[in-house]
Amino acid sequence: MLAVVGNLSIDRVGGGPPRIGGGPYYAARALRLLAARGEVVARCGEADRRFLGPRLAALGLPTTLLHADHTTTFSFDYDGDKRRMNVEGIGDPWTPRDARAVDTRVRWVQVAPLLRSDFPPETLAVLARGRRLLFDGQGLVRRSEAGPLELDGDFDPDVLRYVTILKLDEEEAAIVGDVDVPERIVTLGSRGALLYADGRETVVKAQPLARDPTGAGDAFSAAYLVSRAAGHSPAASARRATSVVGAAL
Questions:
Q1: Nearest CA to 135 among 149, 150, 120?
Q2: Across the beta sheet with 108-111, what order do the strands follow?
Q3: Distance between CA 49 and CA 24 in Å, rounded?
Q4: pTM metric for this prediction
Q5: Residues 71/55, Cβ–Cβ less than 8 Å
Q6: 209 vs 18, 25, 86, 247, CA distance in Å?
Q7: Tell me, what CATH number does 79's domain have?
Q8: pLDDT tens digits, one per residue of 61-112
Q9: Number of domains, the chain
Q10: Which residues contact 18 (CB under 8 A, 6 or more apart)?
Q11: CA–CA separation, 136 and 114 (whole Å)
Q12: Residue 225 sits in which domain range?
């Protein structure tokens, strides 16, 4: 059994109306497509529950929506694979108490931070007890500040003590560098992905997406984790995840 945890967001893309975003939402879409057994534990500000809650629940997965005071809010647009983002609101950090809301039977967890402040090491320590964690690298490099999204490498390395699988995009990987985790995936947008596991590098090809790629990384992580939890190798899991992304979006 697996779980996805993270803050929901309100996204405004290209000046359009607000829509639901955040790792739990896009990962849940992939889990539904795969008919995978899993749960979603998410958070948002109390004022936004009526907007975000039903949209997440409509995906049909077991869902727990925890209380928070604030919701992460972004505005952004795309130029091909390039994304320009602005942070308009910062969600609450997850606490160890929040982490205990994950079912004790869960053995694989997709941790989907939106900003560096989302999951401090003490919270990851609780999530990792008896489990394997896939952690999205944007939670290492995205500064928790309002305004244009800024990336840097000023993260707490203690976070990585609890990570089994680290998923990064190309820009994040350049900032984080060659860190010591059992499995590392670098997604390359329409060019596919690189997998580092078992002392080997594997190139995974992909088909270009013909639509807004928002959430592609979250969908990839969810599909990868489903395959790993089912006993497939890292390379086979990465290939399957790549094929799932387009359908999930």
A1: 120
A2: 63-68, 38-45, 2-7, 108-111, 132-136, 165-169, 183-187, 193-197, 200-204
A3: 14
A4: 0.92
A5: no
A6: 22, 19, 23, 10
A7: 3.40.1190.20
A8: 999 999 999 999 999 877 766 778 999 999 999 999 999 999 999 999 999 9
A9: 1
A10: 10, 11, 12, 51
A11: 9
A12: 2-248
